Amino acid sequence: MMDQSQLPPSQSDFVRRVCIAVGITLLFIGIVWLLGAAFDILLLLLAGVLVAVPMRAAARWVSRKTRWPEGRSLLVVGLVLVGTLVGIGTLVAPQIGAQAQELQKELPNVLQNARRQLEQTSWGRQLVDQIPQSPDKILEGGGGGRRLAGRVFGVVSGTINTFTDLYVVFFLALFLMAEPKLYVNGLVSLVPPAGRQRARHILARIDADLLGWLLGTLCSMAIVGILSYVGLSLLGVPLAGILALFAALITFIPNLGPVLALIPALLFALLDGPQQALYVLGLYVAIQFVESNLVTPLIQKKLNDIPPALLLTAQLIIGAFAGTLGLIMAAPLLVIGMVLVKTLYVQYSLDDTSVEV
Q1: What's the per-residue H, E or C state across 279-343?
Q2: 13-19: which pairs have CB atoms within 8 A and are 24 or more residues apart?
Q3: Segment 297-302 long-range contacts (CB within 8 Å, at least 24 positions apart)
Q4: What is the pLDDT of residues 241-254, one digit of tens each?
Q5: Cβ neighbours of 53 (radius 10 Å)
Q6: Rounded Cα–Cα distance for residues 144 and 221 (Å)
Q7: What is the pTM of this model?
Q8: Which of 90, 201, 203, 324 is 20 to 30 A from 155, alpha carbon to alpha carbon?
């Protein structure tokens, strides 16, 4: 076999270029594969950051007001937060628990009623034909037991994964809250000395924007939850408390959250007929109008800087990679991306300081 050194110069140069191209391609594929494999972990890290950022901000505020060390201020903030959550849980948990049990009992009736309502239209009958008549269908035919066992195993596995993710997020947030400078200095040390001041500025900007986005989102969630509870209670919709809680929590997901929140409310409203469902639909449209046009522009300005089409595209792409977790974390991930684009590309690469960050 002929050695590369024995080839003519033109052929040797061609072989070298082919090897370089193949090597770059394999490296790119390897990086993409590693990012895909570690994407869920990166999103969990971002979730931990979202928990740590407001806690550290509250600790800094307490430290400025009391002149206590930040460590003591963080401990006080943590104790106040835990006490507040325990107090709210003590007051609200019994009612929510009772409504959750009632939801479990009423859900089959709600689904059967929705099926009957759909069967009254031609397109509804076509949709119903694709849905099993009852849960007993799972056990029909060969392998029914295996399918049921598979579903049970899936539920158990999903529950374990959820608690594992919460465990990881909790301790990540705890470590980030305890020693934030350690991790900031570690990230900055990866940057060449000439760019470290710029890197600290970018990290500070990301911290401020994430805090503003998160506080605005929490305010929006609270307002949506309160308005949903008041409206559903006035309309006499069953389980208004748990439906409003679900609407508040799902508001964390922009664009898709309001649609998902509407589905269970409509199903329960259908128990009182199509007219009640129309009232509930009008209620949720009105709430989203207030939230989108009044609340968000006032308290969530950073999210207004993101074009809605870009946000929806990011949700679909990230959701395709990481499922539900990707949908949940798409908005804060896009907030970080916008800061990086504006600072690293627009301001520093293009030297355009007219764009505000």
Answers
A1: HHHHHHHHHHHHHHHHHHHHHCHHHHCCCHHHHHHHHHHHHHHHHHHHHHHHHHHHHHHHHHHHH
A2: none
A3: 299/215, 299/216, 299/219, 299/220, 300/212, 300/213, 300/216, 300/217, 300/219, 300/220, 301/212, 301/216, 302/209, 302/212, 302/213, 302/216, 302/335
A4: 889 999 999 989 88
A5: 24
A6: 41
A7: 0.74
A8: 90
